[in-house]
TrEMBL record:
The lineage of its organism: Bacteria, Candidatus Nomuraibacteriota. It is found in: Cell inner membrane. It comes from Candidatus Nomurabacteria bacterium GW2011_GWB1_40_7. It comes from the Bacteria. This is Type II secretion system F domain protein. GO terms for biological process: protein secretion by the type II secretion system. It holds the Pfam family T2SSF. Belongs to the GSP F family. Keywords: Cell inner membrane, Cell membrane, Membrane, Transmembrane, Transmembrane helix.
């Protein structure tokens, strides 16, 4: 196979050309033995699919976790930034991430800092990530910073994925129930209702309600579908506005069981963010501002913005949080106050992070354990009422005939 490559030699001179090798790995090894740092390498005639990269592939949080650990390992081995990112751009399995890293290599080669290069890809690297890397550049501890980032992202990914996966099964069952009920009302009930109406017998109230809903699906189903589509569009447009986001985030926090889970999830993120950044040397006000952008809730973003303003005006962190006791538990405020008084705020935040992470795990387990029996009871009642409403008149009709 013939491969085209672009590379940089040990003197920083750009070199490009072609190499014949059995596969890509052999080609890369041969070029590296020549002392070249590979920027790009692709098979002759190989075309990258725009659709594949842009629409069917995305950079997952897990990919960024793995990337961060690899960077930390390479930096600990004293590998230069350009060579490290070049190696990772070639060997990463995610093609979209690989294309991003190729651009990062080009930026590094032109003299841009690592944080500046990564900042050009905000869809992959968050503001929190960029600021942490910037601190690592300023303190000369990039390997430690990337290791902290990998640990932090791994914790957040674990919490988020567990919460999401816990809700997949209930959502699937509920959606399946509504699909089956829709088919019942649109296809099965009309055939049975015609038999009941032709019999001339008195029809119970529940059965009349079921027949009315069935007629609504049959005769006005198209209009119901249009209404649901318009409702979905309206909700989507509401969710992209600032007021709509605040309203939906407030609604999430007000739901009895779900709201408590989200509250603990956001508190875990806040304490983890602050602990990671403060331990890496980021100033406290900047740490709060970045946490506000990455917490994932407009409600808590507003709280953190006000907390940052309070700290700027001379308040302690605990005193600034105390003004928002409806969303920040008293135990959290008290522990932060103890950390400030004893000079061990970082350890206290780490303790709070571990505490809320366990609370999230327990809340998810409790929620799943609560949802399943409630769901079974509700679905059973729905199906039971439907069957009784339809089958009881048929049974009475058969009894009167006999």
């Amino acid at each position: 196979m013939l491969f085209k490559y672009k590379s940089v030699d040990d003197k920083g001179v750009n070199k490009e050309g072609e190499i014949d090798a059995p596969n890509r790995d052999v080609a890369i090894s041969a070029l590296q033995r020549r002392g070249l740092v590979i920027i790009t390498i692709e098979e002759e005639g190989e075309k990258k699919s725009f659709l594949k990269i842009s629409f069917f592939e995305r950079v997952k949080p897990k990919d960024v976790v793995i990337l961060s650990r690899q960077i930390a390992t390479l930096f600990e081995a004293q590998v230069s930034a350009l060579k490290a990112f070049t190696m990772l751009s070639v060997n990463t399995e995610n093609k979209l991430l690989g294309s991003k890293l190729v651009k990062v290599c080009e930026d590094l080669q032109s003299g841009i800092s690592i944080s500046g290069s990564l900042a050009r890809h905000p869809d992959v690297f968050s503001d929190f990530y960029i600021n942490m890397v910037k601190v690592g550049e300023e303190t000369g501890k990039l390997n430690q910073v990337f290791a902290h980032l990998a640990d932090y992202l791994d914790r957040q990914y674990s919490i988020t994925s567990k919460t999401r996966n816990a809700l997949i099964y209930p959502a699937f069952v509920v959606i399946t129930f509504f699909v089956v009920m829709t088919l019942m009302f649109a296809v099965v009930i009309p055939k049975l209702s015609s038999i009941l109406l032709d019999s001339g017998q008195a029809i119970p109230v529940f059965t009349r309600i079921v027949i009315w809903i069935s007629d609504l699906f049959v005769h006005y189903g198209f209009f119901v579908l249009i209404f649901l589509v318009l409702l979905g569009v309206w909700l989507w447009r509401l969710s992209v506005t600032e007021k709509g986001k605040i309203y939906l985030d407030t609604l999430k926090l007000s739901v009895p069981a779900i709201g408590n889970l989200y509250k603990k999830l956001y508190l875990s993120r806040i304490t983890d963010n602050l602990n990671t950044m403060l331990s890496s040397g980021v100033p406290i006000v900047r740490s709060i501002d970045i946490s506000a952008e990455t917490v994932g809730s407009r409600v808590y973003k507003g709280i953190l913005t006000e907390v940052a303003d309070g700290v700027k005006s001379g308040l302690s962190l605990s005193a600034a949080f105390e003004k928002h006791s409806e969303h920040i538990p008293a135990i959290t405020i008290q522990m932060i106050q103890v950390g400030e008084e004893t000079g061990s705020l970082g350890n206290i935040l780490k303790t709070l992070t571990d505490f809320y992470r366990r609370e999230v795990d327990d809340a998810v387990d409790t929620l799943v354990g609560l949802i399943e029996p409630v769901m079974i009871v509700v679905l059973g009642l729905g199906v039971g009422i439907l069957l009784v409403s339809v089958l009881m008149p048929i049974y009475n009709m058969a009894g009167s005939i006999s």
